[in-house]
Amino acid sequence: MSNGYTVFGAGGFVGGAIVERLRSDGATVRAVGRGDAPPSGSWGHAIYAVGITADFRTRPAEELLEAHAGYAASLLALGSYDTFTYLSSTRIYRDGPTDEATRIQIDPTDPDRAYDASKLFGEALTFSMAGDRARVARLSNVVPRDATGPTFLADIVREARANGTVVLRSGPESAKDYIALDDAVEGVLRVARSDGQLRCTVASGRNVANAEIAALLREHLGADVSFGEGAATRRATPIRIQALRDRTGFVPAGPVPAIVRLMKG
């Protein structure tokens, strides 16, 4: 099996970090950005990091489908890879069980589920077209290294620095899983290098509540943090990472130190 890598979506937040890590390790990497033609020859370990994240609610459904499934299908059909790792999302779990074996149910009348459906379609295409070479990494909410990234945490850190105030739109007991960017990259690469077909959740397994984030904003940025009037509570089910531990041997660190570094950076 080739030691080389081809990263599709290399200009994105996670894709760019994967390329950076691989190059620092001395690996042979082909970085494919949006609009670039697929490279000729063998791609080695292909990593599909193409996707729409923070602004998905404002994008047309056809853009979600093309980014998460259509483009992936065209690459999968070429078959120029030793393994094909598709980056999916833990959003598909929502309020249900957070295990890779869970059957995901989607209400087609809920427009917010179009994102989930497009990711699941991408997963299904990967398994059906790549067979034993298929890998899927369901990625949690990533903590960036700095406040330039397109994430919720980066947004509120920028807001705190610019205005000294932050208004959170969900309640203090709202909580979800976060994973540091470097741990997310390590987890994805472990999945890509794994033996045999694999679907694996890449998360920390540790929820962080808005109340904890608010306390950190006050402590490290001196921000005045409040919660919007009628802010809803959205408490995600803690994510199980047993498959990540068992199949790859990787146990991510807790996300709070990474959140602190983001705020102090």
Entry summary:
The chain is an alpha/beta fold and 265 residues long.
Major sheet: arrangement of strands: 2-1-3-4-5-9
Text of the CATH class of the largest domain: Alpha Beta
CATH topology of the largest domain: Rossmann fold
CATH homology-level superfamily of the largest domain: NAD(P)-binding Rossmann-like Domain
**Major sheet details:** 6 strands, parallel
Written overview of the protein:
By secondary structure, the chain is an alpha/beta fold. The protein folds into 2 domains: 5-140 and 179-202, Rossmann fold, CATH 3.40.50.720; 142-176 and 206-238 and 254-264, UDP-galactose 4-epimerase, domain 1 (Alpha-Beta Complex), CATH 3.90.25.10. 37% of the residues lie in helices and 22% in strands. The chain has 8 helices and 11 strands. It has helices at residues 13-24, 61-78, 114-130, 152-163, 181-192, 210-221, 242-248, 256-264, and strands at residues 5-8, 29-32, 45-48, 83-89, 134-139, 141-143, 165-170, 175-180, 198-202, 207-209, 224-232. The strands form 3 sheets. It has a 6-stranded parallel beta sheet with strand order 2-1-3-4-5-9, with helices on both faces. The longest helix is centred in the first third of the chain and has 18 residues, at 61-78. The radius of gyration is 18 Å and the shape is globular. The relative contact order is 0.14. The mean pLDDT is 93.
